[in-house]
User: What shape does this take?
Amino acid sequence: MTQQEMLHVPAMVEEVKSFLVRPSIRMILDLTAGTGGHSLALLKAAPEQCRLIGLDLDAEALEVAGDRLREFGDRVTLIKANFADVLDAVPADVVGSADAVIMDCGISRREIVTSRRGFSFDAEGPLDMRFNDSSGQTAKSYLRSATLEELTEIFREYGETAHARRIAKAIGARRDRGSMESTLDLAAAVKSVIRTRQARSLARVFLAVRAAVNREKENLTSAIAAMPLLLSAGGRVSVISYHSVEDRVVKTLFNRFSGKRVHPPCSEVCSSEEKKVFEVLTRKPITPTREEIASNPSARSAKLRVAEKM
Assistant: This one.
C-alpha cells in the first residue's frame, strides 16, 4: 500500500471550514494533526497571513503531515505532544490567541493498516495500541494488569453491555494461561464468547481497550477544559467525535462552559459553577452527508460540535 493510499481522509472538512475559516483568523490549532488532512484544508481556505500549529502523539504521522504542508513554509509548526497538554505544548504567546481549534477524535487509517501498531483485529500484530508508540503502557500490559471489574466496566461503557462480563472473563482466562500476546489472541477471546455479529463486538472491544490504554476520555476532557484559556475572544473550537462516550464529554463540557448547570459534575478539571464563556453554535451535533459517507465510510459515525468563546 502506497503512502498516498494510507493517508487518512478527514471527516466533514467542508463543515469544519464553514465554522472555522473567517477573514479575521490568524492562528489555527489542529490538536489532532495526524497526517495533516484538516490542516491542509484549513490553510488552503484561510487568509495568507494565518499560521497553524499542529499537535499529535504519532511522530510518523507528523512526518507525513510536514511533507504535505511544506508549501506553507514557516506558517506551519508541528509539535509531538498530547492535546491534553496543549497549554504547555504551544508557545506562551499563543495562549489566549487561538482563533480556530480543530480536534478530530478518530483513529487514522494509517494507524489501523499498520499491523505493528496493534489497532486492527483483522491482522496479527503486537498488543500495543499506543498513539505514542515510544512511551506509556501497552495494551498487552494493560490487559495483564486490569482486574475483571475494570475490564467489564470499559466494555460496558463502550457498548458491549450484554456480554461485557463474559468477554472480560474470557480475556482473563487466556492471560492466565499465557495466551494473550497478540491482537489475534484478544480477538480469539472475544470470538469465544460472541457467536453472531462478531465484527461489531470486536470493534467495540478493541475501541474500549485502545481508549483505556491512551486515556482518551480523560485527555479529551483536559483538552476541552483548556479552551477558555486557549481561545481568543470570538475564537471557535470544533470537535469531531465518533462514539457516544466522546460525544457526551464534548456536549457536557460545552454546556458547562455555556453556563448551563450539569449534573453530576463533568470532571475534576471543571468547577461546579462555571461562568458563561462559550456560545454553543451547534444545538445538535452535525453529522456527515450521505454523499460523504458513501465516499468515506469511516466518517459514518462522526459528530461535529462547535462552540465560540464570548
